[in-house]
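Sharing a chain and its predicted structure for anyone who wants a worked example. Both blocks are below, sequence first, tokens second.
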Amino acid sequence: MTASVRTTLEADRQVLAAELWWAERRPLAASALADELVVAFERLRWFPKLGRLYKARGVKAVRRLFLSRTRYHLYYVYNEDAKAVVIFSLWSAVRGKGPPLHRIS
């Protein structure tokens, strides 16, 4: 059985901003992020524990999946009982620190 994958409104906003950035600054690879997200979502459907556990103060069971081509991380939680992956952040790995995770608790 596969898991469902959904995004939060905040993650949707982050994806849109990142896709606009790629379109403006990497015109030869404008679809790179969208392409990589399609693959990542499909992998998470089949392997929801694929991402590494990410330790952060005040939150539990957060996982982080690295998107190597575009150098972003997907931050998500997996509810095993509901068979559901909820992606709550797309965050550039080059920022040096992760997103504000206190918002998901």
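Comments welcome. The mean pLDDT is 91.
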